[in-house]
């Protein structure tokens, strides 16, 4: 059995983080999910990005810390939010 890596105090669930990284998630997104108490019960109820306004997408990008968001149009914001 392979020993699990310790990603320090910023990652609350190292096993979940590693699994998400193995699936191709970015470091930031894997960390966000790994630090969520119960990510399986949270999802599924959010409004689709395509149904949101550019302003709402901008605010979400700001919350996450996406750089260059002020110059992005709606489609670019959607792409940035999905890959982050």
Record the SSE blueprint:
Blueprint: H1 14-22, H2 27-34, H3 39-42, H4 54-64, H5 74-83
Helix pairs in contact: 1-2, 4-5
How is this structure best described in words?
- The protein is mainly α.
- The termini are far apart.
- The protein contains 5 helices and no strands.
- The chain has 2 domains: 1-45, no CATH class; 49-83, no CATH class.
- The model has no long low-confidence stretch (mean pLDDT 82).
- The protein has helices spanning 14-22, 27-34, 39-42, 54-64, 74-83.
- Helix content is 50%, strand content 0%.
- Let me know the average pLDDT: 82
Beta-strand content: under 5%
- Counting helices, strands and paired strands, the structural category is mainly alpha
Rg calculated over all Cα atoms: 15 Å
Q: Fraction of residues in helices?
A: 40-55%
| Total DSSP helices | 5
Summed up, the domain count is 2
Give the number of DSSP strands: 0
Write down the overall geometry: elongated
N-to-C SSE series?
A: HHHHH
Query: How would you name the oligomeric state of the polypeptide chains in this document?
Result: single chain
**What can be said about the biggest beta sheet?**
none
Low-confidence stretches: none
Amino-to-carboxy terminus distance: 31 Å
